[in-house]
Design brief:
It comes from Pseudomonas poae. With about 260 residues, the chain is α+β, with helices and mostly antiparallel strands. It has six helices and 14 strands.
Amino acid sequence: MLMKKASLVGAFFVPGIWLCAAQAEAYCPAPASVTQVEVQRVVDGDTVRLKDGRSVRMIGINTPETGKKGRTDEPFAIAARQRLQALVTASGGRVGLSIGREGKDHYGRTLAHLYGADGENLEAQLLAEGLGFQVGVAPNNALVACQQTAEDVARRARLGLWRQSPVQSVAQLSRSGFALVSGQVSKVERNRGGIWIELQGALVLRIAPEHASQFDSALLNGLQGRVIEARGWVQDRSRRGGVKSSQVRWLLPLTDPSMLKLTS
């Protein structure tokens, strides 16, 4: 995850946070029918392993990464995992499972929303506590609006990941991965490859043709010169055989309008 390091790592909860988090179930109420499943273990803040062998990646949230391959834990990664474990434990180790329109990711994990015993959406609860970032990836974007509302609670109150702004400039990009990036739009182009929104520096946002209809054309047409915030998984094109002279280094694909917003 590409973001400035927060000043605190690990547990950080205070009574005010619990008050905000207690409202999370109102943001994304459980559907009429969910499948009850038993959790074997919590892998990290957005992934659980079920006793039936499935690995479930929660839809609509991206939490900080725990350390792998010699890397240290990212800020709040352990807090996110511990909080999800607490929510699962409070539900007796059983959660409600609602699989997304796209049921698996490219790692073979099941993509689903999870719900506690009281019907609270676990992604929204973590978002409201500042333990992850909302991210809507089509076609699994049914709960985008309510999950954005949950994240806004933490952002306004500067909880968790929002204690210090995780938003970075294009110039601060240093590696591939999830990022919140802010920059000024230098140009917007359309071609057979989709819609390309280039930011000053070395980042281009791409909306593929199959997702273009979801975006507001009038908004896109008026982006040039505006400052925007984008979120998603940044790709380093220099690591895929080099960057052509006409291309910029960093690419961030957009699949849902919630991944892009005007800031000025």
